[in-house]
Please model this.
Amino acid sequence: MTGNGSGVRIGVDIGGTKTDAVAIDADGGILHQVRLGTGYGADAVLNTAVDAVNRVAALAGIPVREADSVGVGVPGRVDTVHGTVTHAVNLGVQGLDLGDLLSSRLGVHVHIENDVNAAALGVYHLLETEGWPDANDHSMAYLNLGTGLAAGIVVAGGLWRGSRGTAGEIGHIPVDPAGPLCPCGQRGCLELMASGSAITRQWPTDHPMPAQHLFEAAEAGDESAILVRSRLLDNVASAVRVLVLTVDVDLVVIGGGISSLGAPLIDGIRSVLAERATESPFLASLELADRVRLVPGGFPSAAIGAAYAGVRAQGSVTVA
Model:
């Protein structure tokens, strides 16, 4: 069940409300894109993924079995070796053999990857196509600011998963022992201070885009909003600092729903990092503000990364 050298790779990003699929060529250029609503529960998720792959393959003019690789990024805890999704709350999925089921339905091997790791590969590929010199000698952390907070780490072109697959789970580093209880069982985790759920908890609003509403209110002088925005920026800056101090990556690239804020977000993060650098010669030497950037708006990083994951998973870096 392998492709025949068509040069087409297919990637799917299954989100809580939408599923994106792309077909890319041998050079990584996007040939076609498809977006579908994501169903809830194992059967709906499986059917949505099958439909997305079939549709984007048809647009590319090939049978699915002729794709060079098919990869799927999915939220939750993923066993990439066996292709199982252990726990994906937002999808209503637990203990699903997604890889085997998709492979059987589609007639081609399907690699399953955690969505943040898939996005990290997609962003790393973007840096390659932008002309990052000697890309395979570089490292990058993709910091996902969504409902939660997590990172995917790419070293020399391969995912760095760690010994138990938890590399990049920096959202569960406690930063306030007296803080709120985290679903992970600890208190005051970084995710509770720097994420979409953190904004929702600290800035209740009926606005369809809470982060945007928060920043607009802060800009208008609302003291409560200013405090919440400051706390968010401080803790995202802390996440950047943690990633550089632990892995010393060349770049930290920020994506996820909150990244759609654009300049107000990245400028605020860089301002915090620059201010901290004035207080510490050590931090100043790390040039943290120069190492952080945003994923370009609209770039389907997880879907593109999933397209590469089936091929590049063999290059993953594991720390014993």
Observations:
- DSSP finds nine helices and twelve strands in the chain.
